[in-house]
Specification:
Chain B: It comes from Bradyrhizobium diversitatis. The complex is a heterodimer of chains A (about 290) and B (about 800). Chain A has about 290 residues and is α+β, with helices and mostly antiparallel strands. In chain A, about 35% of the residues lie in helices and about 25% in strands. Chain B folds into 3 domains: about 170 residues, Aldehyde Oxidoreductase, domain 4; about 200 residues, Aldehyde oxidase/xanthine dehydrogenase, a/b hammerhead (Aldehyde Oxidoreductase, domain 3), CATH 3.90.1170; about 250 residues, Aldehyde Oxidoreductase, domain 4, CATH 3.30.365.10. Chain B has a 7-stranded mixed β-sheet, sandwiched between helices. Chain B has a 6-stranded mixed β-sheet with strand order 7-15-14-13-8-29. A 4-stranded mixed β-sheet of chain B has the order 18-26-27-28, sandwiched between helices. The chains are: A alpha+beta (about 290), B alpha+beta (about 800).
Chain lengths: ~290, ~800
């Protein structure tokens, strides 16, 4: 793009295209951590244009081959950090082994954003209103991180700390997300309440349940757009485990949500309304789950 | 069997025919010429430092570091521009007693809303200008803020303009008939307070301007994304002291306008001054956040209304109080009181009752200005009236169609004068109601609604009648002292090749002005539409006129083109008669050929007449001077406005657990008089309805207690999107105005006028089984769930 175009309003920055993870990490360290990794850029570029962020260096990680690809590794599906949102819709491995991500993908913004935005980028940003970070919680996924001290894997339960705050340390990079393979005795449901298709949801929820005949053996319920970070509804889960999905237990799970969620003050959606919507959504989703989803 | 011949069956009969816009292909192919894309040699870029405070004193401004930055050409403050630009005041004489503080491009010592431009930087590119903004330091001293409308009205409360007596900009009252009597003797009274949030235009292309002052020629050229180039030519001339003939405003393609781009904006005036100071072209394009905090907003009304009825459901009287907050200034040059004025004058307009009282209070506050935006005042007047009518229907056990049919002014009773003084030439409420009833399969929808309610599905059906103001005469602005023309001008020429050029003052903003003007000219002259080229939007080229606002393009501009084309045809036939040795009255023009009027036998192409007149005038009889260019001006006479009418209906579903509303189908029966291009009229209606649906459910500029706009982005300010929009079914009733030969009235705002009223009524119809109601627009899930006491 021509620099004279009026649309370019970010503060000046340097640009480096990394070919390997080590190059990317090195560049970040050499910039004194006044740098940002860029992949899909769907959140970072607007932030740069608004000058909410003004790093000295942008490190383009989109050409790092190791960050790409989707494949089975033992009991997990390894999803490369650069996997684009649209691939969640089109990749057969996702549909087969991580169908909850496949179900959530159509709700992620709009096609143009899905064509560019990446799974790793979404998880790294940890927007509390985003679908995918919350779904890593429901899936009990593990996030693989590369940093100066090597590689490590962090469970999603330990990854999301607070508003836009994660277990990622400065200069660290998500390389892949490991999702336990979907099993025959499992069911999933996903839905969200939004005023317009593609908007940030008023409330959203996805869940993965393991059934033993008609009883829930295990369930992980994850909400988004309900607080400072993607949130598991552990009290609601506890109210369901060991039981069938009848009206009584669904109502108990809905009631338990008050202990799980503490929606923040908001000028448009009061906390009590958000909690009400979460209960409505939970009730509807559990109903669908009971029907076999 | 062949259908009977209609006027559309003769050649070149383009009036009434759906034809594509000649400019649509160019725009679709990415060949639009938008000001945003324009780049002139030696052009510089402006950016503005904006106030973070809603109300504060400017203590000091330090710009040294910004001035020193490489690539920066100018840093200008309010004081710098005040030396070359005279102040403006947004008042009009016919709004008696209205006040507003004088305005300058940039403020001298006080900011009055958060987002107001304070300092301008001009640099080699926008990014450098933005860098410089970060180096400017402004010290502010907070002043008491007026955000809430009740705080603004408190005696002894904080003032937007210190030193004034109150925050009142304008107050007006209408009292017609015997209102107190009517209420005292009424069998039924319904009463409600309805609030309307602020919303804004959200044009796809933001405001864009390139000012290019040439000091050598003393000539100012402004490329301006506006719908009213002549108005701006006049304003730039007078406020910068440049003779009008040396100011040229060029308004080419524009990415949406909707009334938002005909107001004076501080940044736009500043950019003209910056170009004068630098002697170089200066460009400014608002970004999306800047648009949200500096484009005019609209609505923001709180209306308390009462309606009195007799035992049979006859409306006897209405009594309303409209409070509207307009920001810190009244907008220039059209003011910010027109919306309120139209609200109180349009309430009750479809109905027969004669007793009407209305009070309007227009109030200053520390927010960005509100002013005219598509369907000025209409959605508020319509929603208030139609909500009252529906409440009355419920109270009396009447069907919404029945109570309206009973109370509208009968179609055969025109002309009529409303209690507010509006004169209606001929409206068609009865015919429109009848047509809508069939169109929406009303009985079927009601039966379906009853059936679904048993299954816990809550559907609502809403209808709303409306009256729209179009084709305004000088009674709109001219009488108030504004140099805003209500006439239009056209220059029509036969080219040497036998084609026709039409230069006309009405402007194109995507609605198809150029298409319908070419249809009218081709139709009247008798040639193929593709042989008519229409040129708009350049004050150096096109004649002075009102341009595009208040639904005047087709009615006034169209009549101007019609008369001009007829005059050119007379001149062409005069020359043809001389050449053919015939009487002009024995000749006509069909498909570009002069023909015998009676037999339609071809005599000669008009291209041949052009060739002879332009190149072989020696062969014409001595003394003949062919006049193959004709200019014509037309100002509306007769009725001060051409009122139109119609009725909208909708069907929707309310999810009573989530408060989410799904629009199922929308209907409109509309009467805009003569329809020139049915396809364009329908698209105007659809576009207008969608904007009205956005207002009804989604759009609102929300402010914090400290006067900060909290949702100034397209992620947070919700505009209507295709997924949520229903199919829109359209039908027409045609009652042409007798004031013009063309008979066309306006249509651009009819969709917006009643869409939100329709949705409000439908939502309340859906909520009726719960005894719940909403009385606030936009109707958000929060409001619905609150009404249902769900949290």
């Amino acid at each position: 793009m021509d620099f004279e175009e009026t649309a370019v309003k970010a503060r000046a920055f340097s640009y480096f295209r990394a070919a390997t993870i080590d190059q990317a990490l090195d560049a970040h360290a050499r910039a004194g951590d006044d740098a940002r990794f860029i992949a899909g850029g769907q959140s970072l570029v607007p932030a740069l244009s608004l000058r909410l962020q003004a790093p000295r260096l942008l490190i383009d990680i989109t050409h790092i081959a190791e960050l790409r690809g989707i494949g089975r590794e033992g009991a997990y599906l390894r999803i490369g950090a650069l996997t684009r949102h649209c691939e969640m819709l089109t990749e057969p491995l996702i549909a087969e082994f991580a169908p909850l991500l496949h179900a959530a993908a159509p709700f992620v913004a709009h096609p143009a954003i899905r064509n560019r935005g990446t799974f790793g980028g979404s998880v790294a940003l940890a927007d509390p209103a985003s679908e995918f970070p919350a779904m890593t919680l429901a899936l009990d996924a593990e996030i693989e991180i590369a940093g100066a001290s090597g590689r490590r894997r962090v469970r999603a339960d330990e990854f999301f700390i607070d508003l836009f705050e994660t277990a990622l340390q400065p200069g660290e990079l998500i390389t892949a997300i490991y999702v336990p393979l979907f099993k025959a005795d499992q069911r999933f449901v996903f839905d969200e309440l939004a005023r317009r298709r593609g908007d940030y949801a008023l409330v959203g929820c996805g869940m993965l349940a393991t059934f033993a005949s008609d009883r829930i053996d295990d369930i992980r319920i994850s909400f988004f757009s309900v607080g400072n970070r993607p949130t598991r509804a552990k009290a609601a889960e506890a109210a369901l485990i060991g039981f069938g999905l009848d009206a009584e237990h669904i109502a108990a799970a809905q009631a338990a949500l008050a202990g799980d969620l503490a929606p923040p003050e908001n000028d448009e959606v009061p906390p009590a309304m958000r909690l009400h919507l979460a209960r409505v959504l939970l009730g509807r989703l559990l109903g669908r789950l009971g029907e076999g989803a | 069997m062949t259908a009977p011949l209609t006027s559309l069956d003769r050649p070149n009969s383009y009036i009434g025919r759906s034809l594509p816009r000649p400019n649509a292909k160019r725009l679709l192919a990415g060949r639009g010429r938008y000001v945003s894309d324009l780049r002139l040699p030696r052009m510089l870029y402006a950016a503005f430092l904006r106030s973070p405070h809603a109300h504060a004193k400017i203590v000091s401004i330090r710009t040294d570091e910004a001035r020193a930055l490489e690539g920066v050409h100018l840093v200008a403050t309010g004081a710098d521009l005040a030396k070359i630009c005279t102040p403006w005041t947004g008042t009009l004489d016919h709004f008696k007693g209205m006040t507003s503080a004088p305005q300058l491009p940039l403020p001298l010592d006080r900011v009055v809303w958060a987002g107001q431009a304070v300092v301008a930087v001009v640099a080699e590119n926008r990014a450098t200008a933005e860098d410089a903004l970060e180096l400017i330091e402004v010290d502010y001293e907070d002043l008491p803020i007026v955000v809430d409308i009740d705080v603004a009205r408190e005696a002894g409360g904080p003032l937007v303009n210190p030193g004034t007596a109150s925050n009142i900009c304008f107050r007006s009252q209408i009292d017609s008939g015997k209102v107190d009597d009517a209420f005292a003797h009424a069998a039924h009274v319904v009463e409600e307070e309805i609030t309307f949030g602020r919303h804004t235009a959200v044009t796809l292309e933001p405001r864009a301007i390139v000012a290019d002052y040439d000091p050598a020629a003393g000539m100012l050229t402004v490329h301006h994304g506006t719908q009213t180039p002549y108005q701006f030519q006049d304003l730039y001339s007078r406020h910068y002291g440049i003779p009008e003939a040396r100011v040229r405003v060029i308004a080419t393609d524009i990415g949406g306008s909707f009334g938002m781009k005909l107001h004076v904006y501080h940044e736009d005036m500043a950019v003209v001054g910056l170009s004068i100071l630098l002697g170089r072209p200066v460009k400014y394009v608002a970004d999306r956040i800047e648009s949200f905090v500096s484009d005019i907003h609209a609505r923001d009304h709180r209306v308390r209304a009462r309606m009195a009825l007799d035992a049979k459901g006859e409306i006897l009287a209405m009594d309303v109080l409209d409070l509207t907050a307009i920001g810190a200034f009244s907008t220039y040059p059209r003011t910010s009181v027109v919306e309120g004025n139209q609200v109180i004058r349009l309430i009750g307009a479809p109905y027969r009752f004669r007793n009407y009282r209305a009070t309007l209070e227009v109030i200053f506050q520390n927010k960005v200005q509100t002013s005219q935006y598509r369907a000025v005042g209409h959605p508020i007047a319509c929603a208030v009236t139609e909500r009252m009518v529906d409440m009355a229907a419920v109270k009396l056990g009447l069907d919404p169609f029945a109570i309206r049919a009973q109370n509208v002014i009968p179609d055969d009773a025109y002309p009529q004068t409303s209690p507010t003084g509006y004169r209606f030439e001929a409206l068609s409420h009865q015919a429109c109601l009848k047509r809508l009833h069939e169109l929406m399969n009303y009985e079927g929808l009601r039966a379906e609604q009853a059936e679904l309610r048993k299954r816990g599905i809550y559907r609502g059906i809403g209808i709303a009648t409306f009256v729209e103001i179009t084709n305004p005469s000088p009674a709109f602005y001219g009488v108030g002292g504004a140099r805003i023309s209500s006439q239009d001008g056209a220059i029509v020429s036969l080219t040497p090749s036998g084609e026709v050029r039409c230069l006309i003052s009405v402007t194109e903003q995507g609605q198809g002005t150029e298409a319908i003007i070419s249809q009218i000219v081709a139709d009247q002259l008798g040639l193929a539409q593709e042989h008519v080229k229409v040129i708009t939007g350049d004050t150096e080229v096109t004649p002075h006129g009102g341009a595009t606002w208040a639904c005047r393009g087709a009615g006034i501009g169209g009549e101007t083109a019609l008369q001009a084309a007829r005059a050119l045809k007379r001149n062409i036939l005069e020359i043809a008669a001389l050449i053919l040795q015939e009487q002009p009255s024995a000749l006509d023009i069909v498909d570009g050929d002069v023909v015998d009027a009676g037999t339609r036998n071809q005599r000669m192409p008009i291209a041949e007449i052009a060739r002879i007149a332009y190149f072989r005038s020696d062969t014409l009889p001595p003394g003949t001077q062919a006049q193959l260019t004709v200019s014509h001006h037309f100002a509306p006479q007769g009725y001060p406005f051409a009122f139109t009418n119609g009725v909208q209906g909708c069907s929707l579903e309310v999810d009573v657990d989530t408060g989410l509303i799904k629009l199922l189908k929308h209907f409109i029966v509309e009467d805009c008089g003569r329809v020139i291009n049915p396809m364009l009229v329908d698209e105007q209606l659809r576009g207008g309805i969608v904007q009205g649906l956005g207002a009804a459910l989604l759009e609102e500029c929300r402010y914090s207690e400290t006067g900060q706009l909290v949702n100034g982005s397209l992620a947070d300010y919700l505009v209507p999107m295709p997924m949520e929009m229903p199919d829109i079914v359209i039908a027409h009733v045609e009652t042409p105005t007798a004031d013009t030969e063309l008979g066309a009235k306006g249509v651009g705002e009819a969709g917006t006028a009643a869409a939100s009223a329709c949705v409000l009524n439908a939502v309340n119809d859906a909520l009726a089984p719960f005894g719940a109601a909403v009385n606030s627009i936009p109707i958000t899930p929060t409001k619905v769930l609150k009404a249902l006491k769900r949290f």
